[in-house]
Amino acid sequence: MNEPIIKLEKVVKRFGDTTVLNELDFEVQPGEKVTIIGPSGSGKSTVLRILMTLEGIDSGMIYVAGQPLWHEYKNDALVPAGEAHLRNMRKHMGMVFQQFNLFPHMTVRRNITEAPVHVLGLSKHEARQRAEEYLELVGLADQADKFPRQLSGGQQQRVAIARALAMRPRIMLFDEPTSALDPELVGEVLSVIQRLSQEHDLTMLLVTHEMQFAQQISDRVCFFDKGVIVEQGTPETLFANPVEPRTREFLKGVTLEATVEQDA
Amino acid sequence: MNEPIIKLEKVVKRFGDTTVLNELDFEVQPGEKVTIIGPSGSGKSTVLRILMTLEGIDSGMIYVAGQPLWHEYKNDALVPAGEAHLRNMRKHMGMVFQQFNLFPHMTVRRNITEAPVHVLGLSKHEARQRAEEYLELVGLADQADKFPRQLSGGQQQRVAIARALAMRPRIMLFDEPTSALDPELVGEVLSVIQRLSQEHDLTMLLVTHEMQFAQQISDRVCFFDKGVIVEQGTPETLFANPVEPRTREFLKGVTLEATVEQDA
Amino acid sequence: MEWLDYLPPLMKGAWVTVQLAVYSTVLGGIFSFAFGMGKLASNRALRAFSIAVIEFFRGTSLLVQLFWLYFALPLLGQSLGVDLRLPPVLAGVLALSLNIGAYGAEVVRGALQAVPREQTEAAQALDFTPRQILWRIRLPQAVPEMMPSFGNLAVQNLKDTALVSLVGLSDLAFRAEQIRNITQDNTTIYTLLLLMYFGMALVLTLCMKLLERSVGRWRSGGT
Amino acid sequence: MLFGISWNLDGGNWLFAWSILPILLRGLLVTVQAAALGFVVAAILGLLLAALKGAQSRWVSWPAKALSEFIRDTPLLVQLFFLYYVLPDYGIVLPAFLTGALALGIQYSAYTSEVYRAGLESVLKGQAEAARALDLTPLRIFAVIVLPQAIPRIIPALGNYLVSIMKDVPVLSVVSVLEMLNVAKIIGDRSFNYLIPLSMVGALYLVLTLASSAGVRYLDNRLPKQGLPLR
Amino acid sequence: ATLQQIKDKGVVRIAIANEIPYGYSGLDGKAKGIGPDVAQQVMKQLGVKKIEWSTTGFSSLIPGLKAHRFDMVAAEMAILPQRCQQVLFSDPNSSYGEGLLVAKGNPDKLHSFEQFSQGQAKVAIMAGADQLEMLQALGVPQSNILTIASNADAISTVSTGRASAYAATSLTVSQLAGKSPRVEAASDFSDPVVHGQPVRSWGAFAFAKDSQELRDAFNAELAKFKSTPAWRKIMAQYGFSDADMKASFDKKESQLCAQ
Ligand SMILES: Nc1ncnc2c1ncn2[C@@H]1O[C@H](COP(=O)(O)OP(=O)(O)OP(=O)(O)O)[C@@H](O)[C@H]1O
Ligand SMILES: Nc1ncnc2c1ncn2[C@@H]1O[C@H](COP(=O)(O)OP(=O)(O)OP(=O)(O)O)[C@@H](O)[C@H]1O
Ligand SMILES: [Mg+2]
Ligand SMILES: [Mg+2]
């Protein structure tokens, strides 16, 4: 096994009195596609947000690409990371949010080029070419001049994916990327993600409620509850033979649908 | 066949320029359990809302329990219904909404007793007994003193069902009663509805995206598109052998999920 | 003269201010509901009347209204042959309460409209009459929504009471002017005055917060 | 005679009203000037106050919040008296008009500071997070993501306060600023007819505020809700 | 109101304008000054025991009387013909000349009202006071006149230079001068001369137009009281000179109104 690209060691995260992550240990290998499932409030989003440095941690260590994320070395001592370090670390990751969070006052193209131009220092021209490339990838090459509100939810989410990809991150974080979408629009976003998952370089960490989809794309599924990983494994083993009672309980509601289906 | 309890004749409904129901003909027999499926915007909710008199119609006739719904006889002439007539007609029906729509400022018990007391004129005591009876039915007898926000979504929806039942309607309308629920909570609501569906007096009209569930409970499934019924039949025939191309197209997305499941 | 000597007359004035504030806030609250619900009424005349009152009192300056009620209205009464001489207290309370009533009406209207339409529909589906829907469903849900705005309006109203000193009501600001007439001790008097108004506003804010909590209990999930 | 303009008291109410209209209009001009100046002060002080209130250090933000609360909770009239009579005791003598505009500006800065804060906060938290996830610098996030979206929400809200300020200008009459109400009052003192000048002031105010409110609404509708467009 | 109505109610409503020494309210809220002190005595003689005082701006006195917000004004308002058209006056209670309140040391060397008809120096007057007519008659341009709301604002107005002087009655001026070291009464003041006559004012009590009978009754008792040493004591206590006291007998209300 390689050196993991993401490594959490005994990470604790609290909001006020509630402990959301409770000494969480978690590793992801480069190129691995990992899905996180679990009940609402179990801390799934929090893990992603901490990795994206949108949320700090209370104790523990996190390494991304071999470097500490929330700490840095200063004169050989490990100190809480400064903004410069965080910005460097963020370059490794891209994130796609549940609510898309496109910039509503920018055209689709500008949404995608803004960061490459002003963060990576690409020329306008290069950034535009790159935007075209990724819009092509998500099937929206002809929508570049529209504003987000002129697009459907599924299209908006695909733009958000293109926007994150345009920064060429090694790790992509998806936080329930389809749960704000109308049922008919889910498919188009899932198919884009599925295509991405076939790219072997890209490490993917995905929170989702779409179990069938999780099954299809992931190398590993982690079941979260109350801030710890209760059980994990390949989708085949986890969905077919959950060991822990809590996992079984959780998957019951899910497989119910499947059972009914098989009756038909 | 009996006299239908619900009968729509060439009903037209427009919102501005868009025709939502286009000369719709539709009948439901007493005690029948009918499921309406169809793509978003096809007019499924609109049918229920018109029956519940939350929305008027532009032309056509509707009969509920043999009486015209949106019209009444005055001096032997058929005239648009007044508020008094509508209120009388509404007594036949109860409705459960997608977003539950419980009254947040009332306890669960009060939510249920309010209408029986102030609309039907029951005594407080009778109404409370009735509330207990229906809370028992939906499995929430111990939650009567809580406020809606203290309950989970699934519990709230069950209270909403009890609230509608407490008015003793002959017809129950359900508009996507589980689509606002987290996946784990769907099951409990569906099982309550399933139990209700076994009561032969009650006429049920149900809009849902839960195809497997529709299959289980309904006597008849109607596929709506663009304001007309494209195809209808028993669940077995409709799901197994859809005739119309539009129905097949629509059911494709549905069975995709099922296929994935069967891969596992 | 010591600042302590100013306190007794100032306290007398403060008492007048408190009374004015209470009367006009309560009356203003009543006006708020009357005009706010009037603006949503189905009766066209009632709606037009409410809108006219709201627009008028929001559109003109409070001090102008006060002067008009105090100086101009009696003359109008004279020319019509009716006695329209309002005592200063009444003119003051009326101007203040109509003013916050007009602003409060918009709060009431806004809060009523903010109650989700689905609530009305759910109630309709349960066969409630429109009147029952208003009183049993919409208003109880709207009131907690209004409370923060009403809190702000009450403080605004407290501040506005200072203007009645200009038509000769011996409120806090007026007493201060009287003392200044005698002592010319500007700094002490105005500092005291600012602090006293501030103190009253803090107490008022606290009261409104308590009220807010008690009417909105169901929202915080308590029983 | 007032301000070199004479009026006609003997020719009946309409003639009287007509003859004092020019005098009142001069007062109206002063009203508008005072409101405009007060608004500028409020807009600037409010921004400053908002910045202080949002400061990282509690030693800055807390006093700023307290000051803002104090300003908001005390009457304009008393603040005006304070500025007008107390400041000169400490060697700061401003003309009545400037004192009045300053008092209006200070009073409303407490409100405008909230407008700025709300305007910035209304740009959903998600927006700043998405920008951060893209690694944009804080300065750029503020300038390109937050500000263009906040401005269309801030401007109409500020406009509404301009209308409010206009309605508070008559308070300045107590320090002998010759705004519209004061002028009307003086005409009344001289002619012993208050009904007509005061009613005219009311009517003029109604026209003024309805027109400016309509202006604010127009602006509000014209401003792009989703933010100043960037291509 | 008639005297009888007042007696029936047992209380008379009297307004003052918060001017020292004519009529003002003390820290305790009680009315003081020659107007209130004399009115109190006369009312006692008329058999009215209770007085309800109200303090209002000077410019609100006449409107208030006209609106019957009070029965009488005890502010030593000067009897002027145009005021006689609005209200009824008693016979004079006092007589006073004019004065100028200036900043300490009189930096602008001001000694008369006439000086304001030229140049830029501003003179302040109280809203509704009769100094406006005098200044206008002397040809002082409007731009040189600043109207303040009350006497209490005069010291601040003059000492801060917002106006160079405050034009008021000599008594008001000397009272104000005594309150602050930053102001003084202009020395060598020469009374304004209007229509060839030096200005002197006669202050009196004012009543609503329909209170003739009350006014007449009041006049009778006032005349009686003015002949007692008690009256002289009151006047002296508030700074009136013997000459001022004597002058108050020179004119009758009817003469002053007819001018
Ligand atoms: N900013 C915050 N302040 C306080 N509590 C928070 C905050 N963000 C999250 N929480 C709490 O932390 C817990 C975990 O939240 P998180 O969003 O990670 O859950 P989740 O697993 O993503 O759930 P969901 O499926 O509902 O999105 C929840 O109890 C939530 O209420
Ligand atoms: N109040 C309204 N005003 C205007 N258009 C409306 C209104 N209500 C519904 N519509 C339109 O009518 C059409 C049918 O709406 P309806 O809600 O019945 O669809 P539906 O089949 O229930 O869809 P969904 O599955 O999304 O709930 C849609 O195009 C919708 O936009
Ligand atoms: Mg989450
Ligand atoms: Mg629907």
TrEMBL record, chains A, B:
Organism of provenance: Eoetvoesiella caeni
Classification via PROSITE patterns: ABC_TRANSPORTER_1, ABC_TRANSPORTER_2
SMART domains reported in the protein's UniProt record: AAA (SM00382)
Membership in a protein family: Belongs to the ABC transporter superfamily.
Keyword Cell membrane annotated: yes
Membrane topology recorded in Swiss-Prot or TrEMBL: Peripheral membrane protein
Highest taxon, organism lineage: Bacteria
Name of the protein: Amino acid ABC transporter ATP-binding protein (PAAT family)
A single cellular component GO annotation: plasma membrane
Domain ABC transporter: 6-251
Keyword Membrane recorded: yes
Keywords, comma-separated and alphabetical: Amino-acid transport, ATP-binding, Cell membrane, Membrane, Nucleotide-binding, Transport
TrEMBL record, chain C:
Superkingdom of origin organism: Bacteria
Membrane topology designation: Multi-pass membrane protein
Family to which the UniProt record says this protein belongs: Belongs to the binding-protein-dependent transport system permease family. HisMQ subfamily.
Residue spans crossing the bilayer: 20-37, 49-71, 189-211
Record carries keyword Cell membrane: yes
Keyword Transmembrane helix among record annotations: yes
Lineage: Bacteria, Pseudomonadati, Pseudomonadota, Betaproteobacteria, Burkholderiales
GO MF annotation: an example: transmembrane transporter activity
BP GO terms, sorted: amino acid transport
Keywords: Amino-acid transport, Cell membrane, Membrane, Transmembrane, Transmembrane helix, Transport
Domain ABC transmembrane type-1: 14-208
Pfam families, A to Z: BPD_transp_1
Gene Ontology CC, one term: ATP-binding cassette (ABC) transporter complex
Cell compartment(s), UniProt: Cell inner membrane; Cell membrane
Protein name: Amino acid ABC transporter membrane protein 1 (PAAT family)
TrEMBL record, chain D:
Keyword Membrane found: yes
GO CC terms in record: ATP-binding cassette (ABC) transporter complex
Membrane-traversing stretches: 20-49, 194-216
Annotated ranges, domain ABC transmembrane type-1: 28-216
Pfam families in UniProt: BPD_transp_1
Record's keyword annotation contains Cell membrane: yes
GO biological process: amino acid transport
Entry membrane topology: Multi-pass membrane protein
PROSITE patterns: ABC_TM1
InterPro entries hit by this protein: AA_ABC_transptr_permease_3TM, ArtM/GltK/GlnP/TcyL/YhdX-like, Ectoine_EhuD, MetI-like, MetI-like_sf
Subcellular location per the Swiss-Prot or TrEMBL entry: Cell inner membrane; Cell membrane
UniProt keyword terms in alphabetical order: Amino-acid transport, Cell membrane, Membrane, Transmembrane, Transmembrane helix, Transport
GO molecular function, one term: transmembrane transporter activity
Highest taxon of the lineage: Bacteria
Similarity comment text for this entry: Belongs to the binding-protein-dependent transport system permease family. HisMQ subfamily.
NCBIfam families linked: ectoine_ehuD, HEQRo_perm_3TM
Name of the featured protein: Amino acid ABC transporter membrane protein 2 (PAAT family)
Organism: Eoetvoesiella caeni
Origin organism lineage: Bacteria, Pseudomonadati, Pseudomonadota, Betaproteobacteria, Burkholderiales
